[in-house]
Amino acid sequence: MTYFIAQILPYITVTVFIIGVIYRLWRWAASRIVHNITLSPFPQTKTEVAAIYLREIVLFNNVFKFDRPLWVGAWPMHIALLNVIGGHVVGFYFLGKQFVYLGASEALSTYLSNLLGTVFGIILLAGLLYLLYRRIAIDKVRQVSNPSDYLMLLLLISIVSLGNFMRLVPEYGMHYEPVREYFTTLILFQPAAIPEGNPFFILHLLLAQILIMILPFSKLMHLFGMFGMRWIENRIYKEPAPGLPNVDVAAARARGTGLPSAGSTDVA
């Protein structure tokens, strides 16, 4: 079982994830937009569009304005998640010595890497628990929740809890070097056994791979979908909408009109 989890499943996971994401993006891109739904006030320039993108993606501006209690849990959780994922990549690649490039000593760099990983891991877990509490305790949120919402939160909580446990209990933790060597063998298509045979790391890895495979087919796909939604809702307003059926869009725009006039030859 460990052999399958460590040396076969990672390739299945990456394949399912890539194909799933491409499929979902293709479905979204192929969907015809038959009318403009750009939200007012309409941005007039690409700079204004970019500013809206940044406010929504970085600050969750709409959530902050319309559901402050949700923002209190969701924004710190997402920031912590970004740092945890980035910390995994950077920390293992540089073996915890990434802060040396900012002038810190190797010992200080390792300490900061471990400290930040622990702090953001705890913030992430607290945010996930808060979101689970909202789905259970708040009636209007519970009414729009379905079993998959709870399962995804429980899966995330399990993954993060295992990661925090390995950090807070060093004898069950993993050192940077063997983990980097293990992932290097995967990248080189020469998969090796999981280092040190740590059962907590094996379970952490298994649950993470399950999450990655499920992601393209779940609500977690908003990681990618939010960019498409922002483009649809906050792009520069134009008439007619690019997907309007039976309309020669180029001709209509050249005339400066929204819809073809009655009897126009632009209608197929």
CATH hierarchy, class: Mainly Alpha
Based on secondary structure, the structural category is mainly alpha
What's the total helix number?
A: 11
* Shape field: globular
Helix residue percentage: 55-70%
Major beta sheet summary: none
Number of strands: 0
CATH topology (fold) name: Fumarate Reductase Cytochrome B subunit
- What is the architecture at the second tier of CATH? Up-down Bundle
Low-confidence stretches: 259-268
Portion in strands: under 5%
Average the pLDDT over all residues and give the rounded result: 85
Distance between the termini: 60 Å
How many domains? The number is: 1
Radius of gyration (CA) equals 24 Å
Order of helices and strands: HHHHHHHHHHH
Write a structural description.
The chain has 268 residues and is mainly alpha-helical. It has a single domain (44-236), classed as Fumarate Reductase Cytochrome B subunit (Up-down Bundle), CATH 1.20.950. The chain has eleven helices and no strands. It has helices spanning 2-30, 46-59, 61-66, 68-94, 106-137, 139-143, 147-168, 176-187, 199-214, 222-234, 249-255. The longest helix has 32 residues, at 106-137.
